[in-house]
TrEMBL record, chains A, B:
Protein name: phosphoserine transaminase
One GO term of the biological process aspect: L-serine biosynthetic process
Cofactor(s) recorded in Swiss-Prot or TrEMBL: pyridoxal 5'-phosphate
Keyword Membrane: no
Annotated keywords: Amino-acid biosynthesis, Aminotransferase, Pyridoxal phosphate, Serine biosynthesis, Transferase
Organism: Trametes versicolor (strain FP-101664)
PANTHER family cross-referenced by the UniProt entry: PHOSPHOSERINE AMINOTRANSFERASE (PTHR43247)
UniProt keyword Transferase present: yes
Amino acid sequence: MSTDHGRVINFGAGPSALPLSVLEEAQTGLVNFAGTGMGIAEISHRSKEFQAFLDGFERDIRTQLDVPPTHRILFTQGGGTGQFSAVVLNLLARYKLLRPQASAEDTVLDYVVTGSWSKKAAEEARRLGGSTVRTVVDARVYSKDGKAFDNIPPHAEFAFSADPALIYYCENETVDGVEFAHDAQSPAAFPFHLLPQNTLVPLIADYSSSFMCRPIPRLADHAVIYAGAQKNIGPAGLTVLIVREDCIVDVDAAAKLGAAPVPLILSYKTLADSGSLYNTPSVLAIYMAGLVVKRMKENGGLPYYEEVNRRKANKLYAAVHEGEQKGVFRRKVQQGSESWMNAVFEVLGEGAEKKFLDGAEKEGMKGLKGHRSVGGVRVSLYNAVTEQEVDKLIAYMARFLAESASVEAAA
Amino acid sequence: MSTDHGRVINFGAGPSALPLSVLEEAQTGLVNFAGTGMGIAEISHRSKEFQAFLDGFERDIRTQLDVPPTHRILFTQGGGTGQFSAVVLNLLARYKLLRPQASAEDTVLDYVVTGSWSKKAAEEARRLGGSTVRTVVDARVYSKDGKAFDNIPPHAEFAFSADPALIYYCENETVDGVEFAHDAQSPAAFPFHLLPQNTLVPLIADYSSSFMCRPIPRLADHAVIYAGAQKNIGPAGLTVLIVREDCIVDVDAAAKLGAAPVPLILSYKTLADSGSLYNTPSVLAIYMAGLVVKRMKENGGLPYYEEVNRRKANKLYAAVHEGEQKGVFRRKVQQGSESWMNAVFEVLGEGAEKKFLDGAEKEGMKGLKGHRSVGGVRVSLYNAVTEQEVDKLIAYMARFLAESASVEAAA
């Protein structure tokens, strides 16, 4: 039932599993970091030891994701929700500097809505005002039942504006289990070829739940990529930003022209000018995430994780598919749009879902309950979830199917 | 030179020392929290185990600080700098709902400027616009040299506005070592008696570096008290808020009347309505701070810490005073306005300060260098710094004085 330290298998959607070896290293760092005689939570963020660690963390992300010199890597707090606001405020400031005469009506924000999180992001843009928020495409229109987020819509439906202040999408929808395909040939890949070509495209991507699980397609074509750390790389409390230089703008100059003022902690310029140290950062979360990405590099980097994550997702979806054919499971997401990181499905029949979840928990597999807004089962397959752990779940699913079949035969 | 785990004595200003017993407990929690089989950084913030911990944390603060039911305790991210903006935006929204017709000119924000942090807070209010930012009093005017923050100004100089949207002060100025006295009779106490009496006073206090080092005078008369955790109670990445109910306002309704929109993560209403769980909080920082305040309660609560902190501060200032009489040290802050938490002084003579700091470091006492903006020596005396550790520093200071005297005698 349990592994070392009485640990269970954690399929939770976030905060989520971290590598045990990292946790053990962090145990030491908590009382004495890098031989300083102080714990990592007790050391000054302006000490040379922490600065060296931060530099290494930045480098390990830059190298593994192949981030070009045109883009800064910044660290902040506040999670994805903080960035819902920050991307809007910073990109509205940028647009104001580019097009000082544009009215709020002419300042268009393009949102691609493929799930709960991109929907919330668009709502926040509307709350903040000062622009016209456009839904480029709403995936619910293309769903099986007309109301679920269960697909990446057809490319023909992505009608981007000619000169938007930003174009926003969420690469992986954690709640709904919908993700853009990374194979550029797939109909569910993000339609980069349809983006306006007339300028440095202000393309924003929320990569919170798929950050560093595999390479990022067309990374250099993005204006901002952001991710809360608490899925693949660390504890909650750290947000990683990859920001193209032209999006780090003088927000105060823009405010003088009429753009909304940007609170200091949300300003990309404040972060960039201070090397992410304008005020005290979340040192402990940075430390743990730094250990995770260092370990990733030692394990072979993203090619290794991409390969393992592909296998994990493929075999899990195969097991769900088998259950679907036997009338026990039902996939919630349309073929081709399924997330590698969050696999969602239903267990059919009265009380069957509870039975499935309780049985899994008895075998030490936790965190499988779907998000409260959509129900069902959700299996999160982040980097720290091993292939062996997925195999254990699949074996359980097979036993569950066999049991269901024998119950049905007896009935 | 070192204690258990090779640890040194940490007099740093923040992030700063934490109790070793808490760090050791956190080592266990990192791999298995509350018997869940998951580490604290890996567990869902919506799990019943985390909710129970969060409730206990809130209770331990409420009980020890005697927070009345009129005030909510909220947890967020972004530190004091985040609150520089948040208090302004939320209180401007409140004022707009109370006085919808007031122009920006008539919307007055009163700032008491006694040091680097309150100065920065006032600057952020000016950046955000939509109001008239007034400096009620600037302590530099009353300084020995006309430019240093070295005092709490005379009460006669605190001329508050009649109907301000907020009144802001910083209880303890970490950089400058200036603090309001807690003895209500002291001329350096905050002049609560001069506040406007016509309404629920919108009094804001930054308690970042003195939070939970002793009781908060007139807590119930405050509209908002906030504190970054990384001084007395925990790691960086957690901000604690105590907010009176009338300051938790419908910021969207205020925006419709013309107030500035408030980004979701800065809205007190969003935090309050969700029990501080609108989005994923900094679980790990909350956990460690929760352990600290629980341990404080077990040790006797604030009366115990107040007494110990008083003794620590008194004996340290006595040692500085002795050095001053011998012409070796010089106090930077005027008598009566000295901080209990951050004692700042100079070591006189060429190269003497470096010698003092190097000598201390050799004996395992670190973090004594003053803030880069003001120089000198700064001794931070937060809760986790023991009286025994202060005694060790004082013994070192006495030896340093003796040595200086013999050098002088020889010269």
